[in-house]
Structure formats: C-alpha cells, structure tokens
C-alpha cells in the first residue's frame, strides 16, 4: 500500500478522515514524519500543528490544529486521539484572537499574584490559541 489512512478523533467524534502519503506531527520527543508501511508506533503529541500531504494531489496539504493527545500508527492507519482538533478552514480566527488576548491577560494577572497554577493554565491556553492562529494562517 502506498498511502495511509489518517483519522483525528476528539470527544465530539471524527474530525478528520483522509488518505495521505506523508504526515508530520509533533511529539513530546520531537517531530515525527510518517510514511506508508511504518512500523507500529505510539507517541504522545504536543499542542502543535499536524501536516497531512494528501494523495489526491502532491501539493494538497491539510493542516490541523491538535491540542495534545496520542498518535497510534499501525497497518497504514494513523489514529490521533486528541482533546480537541480543528482543520485550518474550520478555525474561527476572531475567536482564537480573543482567546489569545484573554490568556495573555490571565497570565499577566497570575504573574502579578504569583499564582503558579493559574500561570500554567494561562500558558497552556495561550499556547493553544497561538497554535490555532498559526494553523489558520495556512489557508
């Protein structure tokens, strides 16, 4: 088989399901490029973008914002299970910008109050918003 099936699954169901020649994802240990006929692999994902080079056209690339999760590769099926994920075309940029501003404000407030837990939550929220904005830029 010269391609893989890619499925991105969230608690809301399957948000992406296509065939691909190549997938690039960011794991907690670094970037991982996937090609057809890879050995079985399981990896923890970071909050980052997922790049999928589709089989219908060499230049057709889908970008997906993934907020952490797990990737499993087996028998040319790549399954990504994440808390949330959005394709570039589905990202509401205005909403992502509001989330970014809100997270920046919460981070600043947490730093003033020296609230380490609130600062960590705000940093994660900021990272997610920035990731969504970066992915939306691929449209």
Automatic annotation (TrEMBL):
Keyword Secreted: no
Residues annotated as domain ATP synthase epsilon subunit C-terminal: 90-137
Assigned keywords, A-Z: ATP synthesis, Cell membrane, CF(1), Coiled coil, Hydrogen ion transport, Ion transport, Membrane, Transport
Record's subcellular location: Cell membrane
Parts forming coiled coils: 93-120
Signal peptide region: none
GO cellular component, one term: plasma membrane
Gene3D superfamilies the record matches: ATP synthase delta/epsilon subunit, C-terminal domain, F0F1 ATP synthase delta/epsilon subunit, N-terminal
Topology of the protein relative to the lipid bilayer: Peripheral membrane protein
Domain called ATP synthase F1 complex delta/epsilon subunit N-terminal: residue spans: 4-85
Any one Gene Ontology molecular-function term assigned to this protein's record: ATP binding
Biological role: Produces ATP from ADP in the presence of a proton gradient across the membrane.
Subunit details: F-type ATPases have 2 components, CF(1) - the catalytic core - and CF(0) - the membrane proton channel. CF(1) has five subunits: alpha(3), beta(3), gamma(1), delta(1), epsilon(1). CF(0) has three main subunits: a, b and c.
HAMAP family registered for this protein in UniProt: ATP_synth_epsil_bac
Family per similarity comment: Belongs to the ATPase epsilon chain family.
Entries under PANTHER family matching the protein: ATP SYNTHASE DELTA/EPSILON CHAIN (PTHR13822), ATP SYNTHASE EPSILON CHAIN, CHLOROPLASTIC (PTHR13822:SF10)
Protein name as it appears in the record: ATP synthase epsilon chain
Organism of derivation: Pseudolactococcus reticulitermitis
